[in-house]
Amino acid sequence: MPLTSDEGIQRLLDLETVAVVGCSRTPGKAAHEIPSYLQRHGYRIVPVNPSADEILGEPAYDSLGAVPDEVALVNVFRPSREVSGIVDEVLERHESNGDAGSIWLQLGIRDDDAAARAEAAGIDVVQDRCMKVEHARLRG
Q: Is 42 helix (H, G, I), strand (E, B) or coil?
């Protein structure tokens, strides 16, 4: 079951390095504003966007597999139909590196089957919630 309790969400909010799949370089878009908010609140943002070289002052990577550094949480800003493939990348990374132990699907994004596959591999999953909203609600 995806995490829904405040305790589970707090645990994910403790993670400091966040790969943002679908991070946007366009101010005003949620996929830019939410990572920017998180960055201002002390998170290290690792943008994943094949159309950009840099976002929010950080190098952007073409795929999750191309990120050279350890990633604690993968925050997804892509349509629900793409979640299964993203979870495949997370599983591959988790199995080979031991990182990427958490996935956060932003508000309006969910894939119950992909979430179940991730959870079966020991990966925490949040679906259909905004990380910024949850951070502001629980951390003020």
A: coil
Q: Which residues of 119-137 are buried (b: 16+ CB within 10 A; e: fewer)?
A: eeeebbbbbebbbbebbee
CATH domain 6-139 topology = Rossmann fold (3.40.50)
The letter for the amino acid at 29 is K
Distance from C-alpha of 90 to C-alpha of 126, rounded to nearest angstrom: 14
Q: Where are the domains of the chain?
A: 6-139
82-119 pLDDT per residue, tens:
999 999 999 999 999 999 999 999 999 999 999 999 99
Q: Is 22 left (phi over 0), alpha (psi -120 to 50) or beta?
A: left
pTM of the model: 0.97
